[in-house]
Amino acid sequence: LWVVAGRRSGKSRMAAAVAAFLSTFSDYRRVLAAGETGHVLVLAPTRAQSRAIHDYIAGFLQSSPILRQQVLSVGADEIRLRGNICITVQPPNFRSIRGRTLIAAILDECSFWRDETSAAPDVEAYR
C-alpha cells in the first residue's frame, strides 16, 4: 500500500495504528518457529520521527485495557508483546535491520530517506 498525503495528514499516526493492529490482532504462533520472534518493523526518516511513532504505538496499546495486557515491555526502540512479537521503530539503516523475521514492514515517509549516494542508502533498506 502506498499512500500519498500532505503535511499534517496523520501519516505517522496511521503507520502506528497499522503497526499496533498487525502486531496484536493476529496469532502468528503457527508460522513462527519455536523461540522465533516476529517483528513488525517501522522505519522513519529520523530518530525523532521514529520516537514519535513509537510513542503513538505505545499510546494505542496502553489506552486499551485489552491491548495493554499484550505488552510485556516497552524499550527505547521496541515494544515486546505476548506471542513472541516485537514492534521495532527506528531510522532506516540496512545494516541494523537484517536478520529479523518480518511480519510487516512499514516505511514511513520513505521519500525523505537518504538516497543511494549515502552511507545508508534507501535502496538497501528496501531490499
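Above is the first protein from milestone M3; the second protein from the same milestone is given next.
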Amino acid sequence: MKIVQVDRNKDYSDALKEAVTVLRAGGVIIYPTDTLYGIGGNALDEKVVNRILAIKERPVSKPMSIIVRNIMWAKELAHVSKRQEKILNKIWPGKVTAVLPKREIIPDVLTGGSKTIGIRVPDHSLTDKLLELFGYPLISTSANV
C-alpha cells in the first residue's frame, strides 16, 4: 500500500496520474468525495468489485454504489427517463445518490444481484478530475470495514 498526500491548493496532477495507473491495472484506491473517503476501483470490472467486497468483508448480496462525472455517464450505465434527467440535472453534482434501473454493462456482483444501481455525481474537483482521466465509473463505498 502506498499513501499519497494531496494538497488541493497545489498541483496534484502527478498524484492523479498515479491513481489512474493503479486503476487501469485493476487496482483499488481510496479517494475523497464531497461526503466521504471512498474505496474505489473500476466499477465495470468484476474482479475489482470482488476485490473491494473482500477488502470490506462485505457480503456479495449487499450492493455498492458508483460515482460518475455527469448525467451523460449515468445514462450510459442506467435507464434514466426524461423526467428523472430533469431532476438529476437540478441536484447533481451533489450529495444525492439516485437509484436507477441498471443497464447490462453493470456487473451483477456490484448490485448484489439487484436490477438497480445507486449512482452519484460528487461535487469534488479532485474526484471529477480523477474520473475524467480514468474514463470509467468508480465504485463508491465508504473506506471502512
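Note on the second protein: The mean pLDDT is 94.
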